[in-house]
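Its record is quoted verbatim for completeness.
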Amino acid sequence: MARKILVIGKSGRLHAITRALVDSVSLPEVHVISDVYLTRIAPPERLICGKSDDRPFVEGCVRRIKPDLVVIGPEEPLAVGIADLVTAMGIPCVGPTQELARLETSKAFTRELLTNHKIPGNPEHRVFTTIHGMEEYLREINEFVIKPDGLTGGKGVKVSGEHLHSIRDGLGYAAELFRTGQPAVIIEEKLDGEEFSFQSFFDGQHIAHTIPIQDHKRARTGDKGLNTGGMGSYSCENHSLPFLKPEHIIEAGEINRLVGEALLEETKQEYKGILYGGFMLTKDGLRVIEYNARFGDPEVMNVLPIMETDFLEVCDSIIAGTLNKLSVRFRPQATVCKYVVPAEYPEKMKTGGTIDVRELDKMEASESGLRVYYGAVEEKDGELHLTGSRAIACVGMGGSLDDAERIAESAASLVKGPVYHRSDIGTAPLIEKRKLHMNRIGSEQQTRPLIRAAG
């Protein structure tokens, strides 16, 4: 009898995880809890529509399906303790407990974790629980970033000079965050450099790394417009990025490992899931921008399609604590992901527009270097309708970044309807812009020595 796997989530990330499990050589029976009805993710008999962070609803689904393994995609179910719920029911779960997920749900917790355990990469920062003393600190660091402590869907961070044009603006935004119920506000120094994501599998004791990826948060071509959950991302065939050296990747992986060890020491709980470090390479080396307790969206779509190792085998190793015995390998291919989104996204989360993907379906059927993942789209009366957020991720894979970008761009351009995408992601001019940026700030491309040696 086939193993039953339950995937809980939403967005294109859910589709990517589900497809990777369906493609396992062991041919599991994969069930899905999704926020939209979309049979492109799973057949109707294995698709349950509902909220992934509704504990009673999820518990009922788990009791009915009786899965052998649960895999959690997004942050919201982790934040409310769905992993705790599932584990208490005797079912192994890939996804950290509610306490461990504080790595993402509380920025203050993460900054203090890095500080207390002397993990390198922390920027200059201070955590405030009231507005008292904030003005003096803002004047002291001059250029600043203001972050809410809790989850805001990747859209709550504001930066001086871009969103906040004075100390008064900064104080006003902090006060607004407190009024909306944020328990703390974090003020950090404003850094200059290039950001990248580095995701690692962790089983509580051992770690296995994926590949570095660069995401693009700005909505419009040329890095203009509002911040989004991520308009697309790319990775290179050499499993590096144009502005990184091998030692930067090694250090990012070591920081992920040290964070996993610190969590065990701090909470006495084993972290079983994905450690996602958001890093920035600056002229002074690597800095930790944030941590997430799950795969990134869109970054998961750069990782899973080129992973040679069976993803279900990785999940089983996470549960068993045997990642050290598994070789996690990736094909030497570049990837480019371009998200197709509603025309007014993110300014207006407008729903209801109809899209036509018939030509995209034809290309996917004939192009082996293309993966298409569906997110904020649902089926109604035989048509696909936008639900307001990032709709379809087109992922190109190729022997070079140019090849991968060409496939992704061709695919994204085939989606017809009230949509747009960033045509510049993964292109040579934008990559060159990133490299010139690092040259301009005079990065010495050096890393600092780690506090503890790898073990």
Observations:
- The CA atoms of residues 130 and 278 lie 27 Å apart.
